[in-house]
Amino acid sequence: MLRDQADAVLVDVRTKAEWTFVGIPDLRSLSKEPLLVEWTSFPPAAPVNDFVDQLAKKITEKGLDQSAPIYFLCRSGVRSQSAAKAMTEAGFTHCYNIAGGFEGPLDSQGHRGTQSGWKAAGLPWIQS
What we know:
By secondary structure, the chain is α/β, with parallel strands linked by helices. It has a four-stranded parallel sheet, with helices on one face. A two-stranded antiparallel ribbon has the order 2-6. It has one domain: 3-Layer(aba) Sandwich (Oxidized Rhodanese, domain 1). Helices cover 23% and strands 13% of the residues. The chain has three helices and six strands; from the N terminus they run βαββαβαββ.
């Protein structure tokens, strides 16, 4: 969808620590980059009160409006679902949660990124 929809954006709502140490989606082959906006901060894992305003500003800066397709990503799909709901409530009409997230759920050995999610699907990503 990011490739086929020129106005589609990917929003990574994980924390700065996750972006730095785990990696981020690599959209350079699409001539795009993910929008990085924390849903919660770390530490102390508190909600970011102005998330909607921050993201709305970034979307406007890209020349897009509330009808642009927005795909939300977090580690496993929980925070991104909440972020998608918040943006929908703010009037954005095409908000989608990426259910598997960037790393997906824990596997039987307690590791992420092996069963589902962006990494497990073999989608491009980079370390920062």
